[in-house]
Design a protein that fits this description.
With 201 residues, the chain is of the alpha+beta class. The protein has 5 helices and 7 strands; from the N terminus they run ααββααβββββα. It folds into 2 domains: 65 residues, no CATH class; 121 residues, no CATH class. α3 runs antiparallel to α4.
Amino acid sequence: MTKLNSEARRILADAGITVRDWIAYGGWLKEMTDEADERQWVPETEWRGDECGCSDDRCIGFHHDEGEECGCLPVLIENRAKDREAYDIWQAYRTAVEASDGRGDQDAYDAVWSRTETWVRRHYPRALTFSLDAVVKGERGITATYPPFPNGSIPDYVGATPEGDGYRQQLWTEGTDPNGHISHERARTMFSQGEENGSGN
């Protein structure tokens, strides 16, 4: 099985990420059999990407030549930080909303709102507005509104819904873990939404 090379390990360490953390971010699962002889899927403990640190095991020779710097790794590290911050924002939001026996904590809400605005502006600069309270197709999370495409159309992405002249898009959805991996329930919902979008075309 491929091992992370020294350069990838150095870059990850500089970002404060351990090899174990990076394997977890890869999200791979391996099949196991429990004592009742039933199959289970558990998180992988070995690196299954390429040695340059990319989670795609074909990266060297496909994304870049051997000996060249991997451009994927910095992007993946940035995405991991974005996902983890979104998770933390959502936890802070839920805490603020549910404080004081459901009456909420306005100061905490304002603080998390400001933090969310910074997060959205940094990672989604085209967004017009954002919300922590909007529900898209029955799901809660961080959402943003966008203008229509230049030709006046709006996308039929999973997690997008028409709103005004444009559309509202889920940026991060409840049920996503700190590594950006979705729950089985969320996966089923996305599959259903995809089926619905496909049948409408």
